[in-house]
Amino acid sequence: MMRRTTMIKMSTSFRCILKLIARYSLKRTINYFAVTAVFLSICTLFTVNAVFKGFDSELQQLFRGSLADYLVEWNWGGPSLKELEDKDQDHIWSPALDGFGMIKTSRYVSSVSVKGVDPSREAELRKSMNISKIDFSLLEKEDVEQSPLKGFLSAFDESAHTENPTPILVGTVLAEQLHISEGETVKLVLPNWQDNISTQSFKVSGIFKSGIYEDDRTKVYIPMKAASNMIKHPAGFSYLQVAEKGKEGRKFNIEELNEAYPNAQVGSWRERHKFRLRAVAHERKLIALVLSLIVVVSSFGILAIQWSFVQEKTRDIGILRAMGFSRYDIFSIFLGVSWMVGICGLILGLGGGYLISNNANEILQVLQWRPFPGDLYYHEKLPISLELSDVIWISLLSISVTTVAGFFPAWRAVKVEPITAISYE
Predict the structure, then answer these.
(1) Is the residue at 74 inside a domain?
(2) Which domain holds residue 416?
(3) Could you read off the pLDDT of 80-99 as tens digits, one per residue?
(4) pTM for this prediction
């Protein structure tokens, strides 16, 4: 009987505490301003974090698209491509041959990074990796026409002319700077492994845009046969790009490749771009840290409002204590008011941030504002990445700072003596 009576009293006390929290929260206009401050801070943090995380994800895809998931390289004495394919039919092996030289038009010249690829293998590799940023089928064109070459590298002109110049893919930035257009003939001048200089004419069969400024500014793609004839690499290729057949999106096990080819150097696209990826990740974390301070600042508003609220309700505290409310009940009431403000602001902030992030491109379209013009950036639209982990850490951050902000005013309310509080004017 006593246990049942105690439970009834506890239930009644809990209901009274909830009613007081609701009353104190809803009937004070200044609390709505505090909720608005938390809402704006959470909404800003959520939206900006989603945009920067989207940029991070898209940038990783761009870096991955410039190479492959894994790269296998033999310095000397490696197996031939046919031997590899006969031994391992579960993977796509696409050879690549890198070189550095100059590209020359009739009026301009520039340094370039040349990458020789097998168009059909490269297309199959990228299809398996679900990457199709560059159309390598353009390198398979045979019906190209010769156009006259003029320029100040005339010493190479005689050996460079052919009846059907080989196709070449040129980046957008390089094409713009050198005033190159599709169908125009250009010349590559490359040093080779025999300490000689190789030259050859090429016809621009396409202009690609990878989204990586360095690649769009300096990289050109040519067929593997032309690259081998010019660079004359002893192994025939610089490295092999690897993808798995028929299992799109599956990540490779690098230890598996190391065991299969112990004499090779096995790397990945992440290793090739690790400094850039680390820089981007560091910048994203720094932005998140700076924006998190906005949430902390909004908590100071809650602290100041609740501190003055305790001062106003000193007499009420004495009456509640005289009615039998414990110190714990008083602490719960005033901490609950802070939580009410913080949680309402958090829910509204997450909801507003989700709506803005999910409809950011539509909002920009209505405003007729393009923050990322297509001629300057690969992304004409904002890349957005919404993940549950972000909702969790933002919620934990908001609840934590709200709890700290509400703790000190609630603790001050607990310290008020009933007799002093009742006689307070």
Answers:
(1) no
(2) 7-61+277-422
(3) 667 776 666 677 788 888 88
(4) 0.67
